Amino acid sequence: MLQAIQKAEVFTNLSSTKLKDSNNEGLKHFDWLKVETVLLDLDGTLLDLHFDNFFWREMLPLHYAKLNKTSLESAKETLYAQFESVSGTISYYCLNYWEEKLGLDIVQLKSNFCEKIALRPSVLQFLNYLRRIDKRVILATNAHRESVELKMDVTGIFSKFDRIYSSHDFGFPKEDQAFWETLQKVESFNKHKTLFIDDNESVLKAADIFGIQFLMGILKPDSQKPDITLDGYDQISNFEDLIGEAF
Q1: d(CA 193, CA 183)
Q2: Cα–Cα distance, 126 to 113 (Å, whole number)
Q3: Same domain, 229 and 194
Q4: What is the pTM of this model?
């Protein structure tokens, strides 16, 4: 494995191109001829983050409380503190880590609520558009492989990608420069001709530092929560805003 590069403490003088949008009017005119590869996040980008927020912040604490014969409030306090303690690390996203730590079958529990897994607005149309304009489409997610498989089964979008990578394949989360180094090593994409879309500011900053040329965030990752702000990055609310004419 590549050695992790220490993250920069100050995110200044970043060279990436942010997709400037005035009320999203300019996005339809984005020059797709400048892009060869499109890297896409999964949860909160292609999929409504409501499923994961509901599961990790509501359902998991409920089952943890029952298992440990404690109150829901106490369970939430315990779990939220544990989540925060490993935030941004590979353990944070690892189902095996949480199953061992909490004594719960998380994969099965997720399957029990899979009806809440849903695509965000115009995702299917956008993925089909990328096919029509002949872009290489890569899923790059922090989600554990078993979680990815469940969501692919429910949404039916597996075939829309040329490759699917989980950060667990490399042993580093997307917040770590080593993830990007390894991804480029296995994919050989031109980072100056790559668009990356994600809903996580820390991940976007990591991609920015690595040198991904075109970066974009998501305005409303969770359909049941208010819009979010990703400092320094333009955000899209509906993938329809990126669908132009096929050339």
Answers
A1: 15
A2: 26
A3: yes
A4: 0.89
